[in-house]
């Protein structure tokens, strides 16, 4: 269910310097001892960000991170509730009041140590987790002030301490137990695979990671753009794994280069973890989807991010110089594609979604940033067909208008097409961002591996699949989900693999 207000707040842009000064002034006013009422009167700290007019034409990170003063002020807003509803809202159960108290006390080391007990990727999760529907949704401050926007900004504080640790070169290589002589293969290097690799390697098992692309990191590298998640942050996690002694084999497609069975029966692996994600784009199956100028968001983002097509002067991989773009969908992937199109120089970028903004699955911050950057939102509309010019290139779309009907299984109200409401839009590019399914290669090449009707691998609560010594987790089991859920699955499954190897 959505936590959104029916009318989304559009905030006016406040320059970082001003936000910094506001925080300093707020700190001066804070009394030495704080009652809950005092804490709730402290203003929520906005995230400093690049000026929308400037960032429209660069790929640098938009959100700039809290200053120490802002972090302190925000941390003082936390009521330190005994019941800690925020912890229940976190998929990996981080001791949120504990780390926030440490920030309020000025002890960033203690704060990051608390987070790292449960989360291996805080700099990533602090940036991309949907906090408004997880830890921040049940926050007592937000509830009392009647808006999830006013909840304590837990994600921003998490990012603050993770960045503090990295920028001060304090990331330590975890201790590795003595060599066990056991070997674990990890297929896929997204958040699920990286997490399993770290937790299994720590137990002294040797680890080999296999990645189909030429760079590891999964969606964090090929999908989520630089302006939302700088690649150096993901690379840092990978460097830590290699420093721990994990071996990385890129351009290695399991199911083609080697099969799952080969790894177990010929290559000496004692256990395997499949974390191959949900990288197969869904299409609308409407007329015109094969025209030149129609992309899946996956292809568009991969060309831009992984192949660096945005770096037009140097990249070998071209990307079409679009002028009028429509992005179909309302999730994070749609926002990323639309905001990338803006940065690649499109004159108009239209986001078309068949429900309303209240039902949109994208993070509120991404919606807000997309609007600030000039993406035009068209709600309650959906294409009926894609139109072509005489050369077979996209020339526009024919759309239908929608209204909302009864709620469906997801709890969101169903879009119902309004008969006879057709209208046309002129375009040269259409990017389809309506969801992803799991890649079929491993299930097609691994006899006996049980999958469900959506093609996701079936795994029990420990991550164990239908096959001996083979585990799976992340999007390949859950369907397209989130970074933190993939990481949580990874931790749980690594524990099961470690236990199985200890007893075999
Ligand atoms: C554009 C985009 C934006 C997103 N934004 C957010 C967000 O803001 N917040 C959030 O929480 N989540 C977001 N998500 C979802 C999130 O990124 C995923 O849920 C998460 O990355 C899943 O992790 P994973 O480890 O299961 O798989 P992935 O990250 O998908 O990694 C799987 C890896 O396996 C590799 N692979 C696949 N098949 C093979 C094979 N046969 N052999 C070898 N390697 C293989 C792939 O190349 C890939 O590198 C977004 C997703 C996309 C696409």
Biggest β-sheet: count, sense, barrel? 5 strands, parallel
Strand line-up across the major sheet: 3-2-1-4-16
The name CATH uses for the topology of the largest domain is FAD/NAD(P)-binding domain
Shape descriptor reads globular
Classification by helices and strands:
alpha/beta
In angstroms, what is the radius of gyration?
23 Å
Number of domains: 3
The ligands found in this model are:
flavin-adenine dinucleotide
Superfamily (CATH H level) name of the largest domain: FAD/NAD(P)-binding domain
What share of residues is helical?
Answer: 25-40%
The CATH architecture of the largest domain: 3-Layer(bba) Sandwich
Straight-line distance between termini: 44 Å
Beta-strand proportion: 15-25%
Number of extended strands: 16
Helix segment count?
20
Mean pLDDT: 94
Regions with little confidence, pLDDT below 50 for 5+ residues = 5-9
> Would you state the CATH class of the largest domain?
Alpha Beta
Describe, in plain words, how this protein is organized in 3D.
The chain is α/β, with parallel strands linked by helices and 504 residues long. It has three domains: 16-47 and 54-167, Alpha-helical ferredoxin (Fumarate Reductase Iron-sulfur Protein, Chain B, domain 2, Orthogonal Bundle); 183-279 and 438-502, FAD/NAD(P)-binding domain; 282-435, 3-Layer(bba) Sandwich (FAD/NAD(P)-binding domain). It has 20 helices and 16 strands. Helix 16 links the parallel strand 7 and strand 8. Helix 4 runs antiparallel to helix 10 (154-167), helix 6 crosses helix 10 and helix 11 runs parallel beside helix 20 (483-502). The two termini are 44 Å apart.
């Amino acid at each position: 269910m959505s936590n959104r207000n029916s009318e989304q707040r559009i905030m006016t842009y406040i320059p970082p310097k001003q936000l910094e000064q506001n925080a300093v002034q707020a700190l001066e006013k804070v009394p030495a001892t704080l009652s809950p009422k005092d804490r709730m009167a402290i203003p929520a700290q906005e995230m400093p960000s690049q000026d929308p007019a400037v960032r429209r034409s660069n790929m640098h990170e938009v959100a700039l991170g809290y200053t120490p003063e802002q972090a302190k002020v925000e941390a003082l807003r936390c009521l330190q509730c005994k019941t800690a509803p925020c912890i229940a809202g976190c998929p990996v159960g981080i001791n949120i009041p504990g780390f926030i108290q440490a920030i309020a006390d000025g002890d960033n080391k203690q704060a990051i140590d608390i987070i790292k007990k449960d989360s291996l990727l805080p700099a990533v999760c602090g940036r991309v987790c949907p906090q408004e529907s997880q830890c921040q949704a049940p926050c007592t401050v937000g509830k009392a002030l009647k808006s999830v926007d006013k909840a304590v900004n837990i994600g921003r504080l998490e990012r603050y301490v993770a960045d503090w640790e990295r920028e001060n070169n304090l990331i330590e290589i975890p201790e590795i137990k003595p060599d066990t002589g056991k070997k674990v293969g990890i297929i896929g290097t997204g958040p699920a695979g990286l997490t399993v690799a770290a937790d299994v390697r720590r137990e002294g098992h040797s680890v080999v990671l296999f990645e189909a692309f030429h760079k590891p990191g999964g969606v964090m590298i090929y999908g989520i753009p630089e302006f939302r998640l700088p690649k150096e942050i993901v690379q840092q996690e990978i460097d830590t794994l290699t420093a721990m002694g994990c071996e990385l084999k890129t351009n290695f497609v399991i199911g083609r280069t080697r099969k799952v069975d080969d790894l177990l029966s010929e290559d000496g692996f004692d256990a395997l973890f499949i974390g191959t994600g949900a990288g197969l784009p869904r299409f609308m199956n409407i007329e015109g989807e094969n025209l030149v100028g129609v992309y899946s968001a996956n292809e568009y983002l991969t060309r831009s991010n992984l192949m660096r097509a945005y770096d037009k002067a140097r990249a070998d991989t071209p990307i079409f110089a679009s002028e009028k773009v429509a992005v179909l969908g309302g999730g994070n992937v749609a926002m990323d594609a639309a905001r990338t199109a803006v940065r690649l120089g499109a004159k108009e970028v239209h986001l078309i979604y068949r429900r309303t903004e209240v039902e949109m699955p994208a993070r509120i911050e991404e919606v807000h940033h997309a609007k600030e950057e000039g993406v035009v939102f068209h709600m309650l509309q959906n294409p009926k067909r894609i139109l072509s010019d005489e050369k077979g290139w996209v020339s526009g779309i024919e759309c239908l208008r929608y209204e909302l009907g009864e709620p469906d299984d997801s709890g969101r109200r169903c879009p119902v097409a309004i008969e006879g409401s057709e209208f046309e839009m002129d375009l040269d590019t259409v990017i389809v961002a309506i969801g992803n399914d799991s890649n079929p290669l491993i299930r097609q090449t691994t006899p006996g591996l049980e999958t469900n009707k959506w093609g996701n691998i079936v795994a029990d609560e420990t991550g164990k699949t239908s096959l001996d010594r083979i585990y799976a987790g992340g999007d390949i089991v859950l369907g397209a989900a989130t970074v933190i859920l993939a990481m949580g699955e990874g931790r749980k499954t690594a524990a099961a693999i470690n236990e199985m190897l200890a007893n075999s």
